[in-house]
Amino acid sequence: xxxxxxxxxxxxxxxxxxxxxxxxxxxxRLTGVFNIAHGAIAMMAAYLYWQLSGPWGWPRWxxxxxxxxxxxxxxxxxxxxxxxxxxxxRTATAAESLVATxxxxxxxxxxxxxxxxxxxxxxxxxxxxxxWHLGSLTLHVDAFEDLAAVVLGTAGLGAVLRxxxxxxxxxxxxxxxxxxxxxxxxxxxxxxxxWSIGCVxxxxxxxxxxxxxxxDPFGLTLVVLETFAIPVIAGLTSIPVAIGAxxxxxxxxxxxxxxxxxxxxxxxxxxxxxxNLPVVLLLLALLARSRLAEAGGDAGSTVTFAQRRATExxxxxxxxxxxxxxxxxxxxxxxxxVNLRQAQQVPALGIVFxxxxxxxxxxGQVSLGQAGYAGLGALFFAKASTGTPQLVAxxxxxxxxxxxxxxxxxxxxxxxGLFLALTTFAVGAxxxxxxxxxxxxxxxxxxxxxxxxxxxxxxxxxxxxxELVMLxxxxxxxxxxxxxxxxxxLVAMRDSEDGARSVGVDVRVLKVLIFTVSAMLAGxxxxxxxxxxxxxxxxxxxxxxxxxxxxxxxxxxxxxxAAGAVVGAGFVALISATTGQDQAYLIPVGLLAAVLGRVPxxxxxxxRRLLDWVLTPxxxxxxxxxxxxxxxxxxxxxxxxxAALDRLRTARAERS
Length: 656
Known about the structure:
- The protein has helices spanning 2-31, 38-53, 60-89, 94-116, 141-163, 165-175, 177-182, 187-209, 217-226, 229-233, 239-255, 264-275, 277-288, 315-330, 337-343, 345-361, 370-384, 390-412, 417-436, 439-442, 460-482, 484-495, 497-502, 507-533, 543-556, 562-579, 586-594, 602-615, 620-627, 639-655; strands at residues 131-134, 137-140, 451-452, 455-456.
- It is an all-alpha fold.
- Helix 2 packs across helix 9 (217-226) and helix 13 (277-288) packs antiparallel against helix 19.
- The chain is globular.
């Protein structure tokens, strides 16, 4: 009977997990976009529900009606109009849309953090908390209410998709948008409806989760992100399978309370597995699958990150980029001790950002797990530096992170685009939960700044100079990746993996190589971050607050530009220092990443265009004339045609 009690107790959480997974799946099937920001939309809806029903004193039913009936659909329409329609109009790849959703997630996180802070809130549950006792059996009424919301919502949506003309139009637009538009379907209207439905599912998920979880920006968002295991298990196709997987996840996680192993180590492992079961299932589901049913064709092309141009960047533009980066790096040497101590994170963070440029900008592989490699580098350095010279420990940290990157590179051989992005995110989340957050690995960890050949670098200025030397080493690695036969092979793989194979490029070896090198650079940067903080802080390498945010920064500042990555690191530190809030940079970065469809190539591409405009000055009238189509040539008349025209003129004159 106790097992049945636990099963009913897990039914509510399983129903909410199913609702979240179905929401992601439905958005994907209706719009062709895998919405990484689904959890952030759920979090914002939960905050709005709390604001209306709590501090402002609105009735719960009215607050829910306003959030689900007005705000969520309006958000969906706005997203389609201002974020994803520009991407669709220029036939952007699915990977570009994925980046836009990451930007949206970062933006919403930053807004929630600035408006409501990081303090946990406890909204009034939507359905309340009611318990029935049937003999020795305990039933939670709210669990059945959550399940009813899932069943009714998905059943209603299924009826609309299968039995109505709107459903036919939606399926047509998702399958082939161009053909649907030729048949007279308003594809923009259909896409807006799809986004509205997805936002309503996300909002309902967030509101229901407030009954079981405290409300804070990062915690609730990450919980929803972990439910990505459900649409992956369903193959991004089957809603019934997604519902079953969600219910099984909730019930199974609750049933795990029935058994507690003996021994401290076993109990710790079992507790971590119990608390992080969705992350484990996500990673296992991704590793077990050989492919995902990706809408819109191949999502592997990421040429938008490194904007395809008719010509290579000019020497002048490269000089401007590296000059700005050099100023950003050497300017802190003029700061006082307090400001210099804050600026020490810039070179370390710049090396991590450069590692993202290597794997994404140079080779076109979407990696959302760089914070995991950086954290491993920091942890290995802390462990190795206790009985080893710090410089040797730094080398060990980079090599250890590279080994993990090498192992990660093997799953990347058969994956690209969305599939690869989810796999790397799952690896990063797994490392964060089962390594960084486990006391066995992180207790009694001491981090000290290095000494080189007997010279102590404990001083702020000496340590900053040491960081600059390490950054110069990272740039040297990037230079070798960019140039020569290796650089040409990476560019070929980035632009088209199939095309690279056709000319003899061994794509498998290149993928493993670039993941290994990128992980080593990230591990080096992570070790320097830990030395800058003089401690190992697991939150610094969180998969949500670090990996996704860092990826968005690199894309915004130009994912194919190592100098742009360094400028991005300086931007992050500058915004955090001037506002006094560590997460304030998320708002401008998220906004720019979300509108990447209007500015492909990021800030680096905008700067290049501005430089071209400055170096090639033209007047407004000249630019207007250059943009006009050429005039049509005057028609050449034959003698017979000229005679006919004369007769026509004579006839018109006689009539007048």
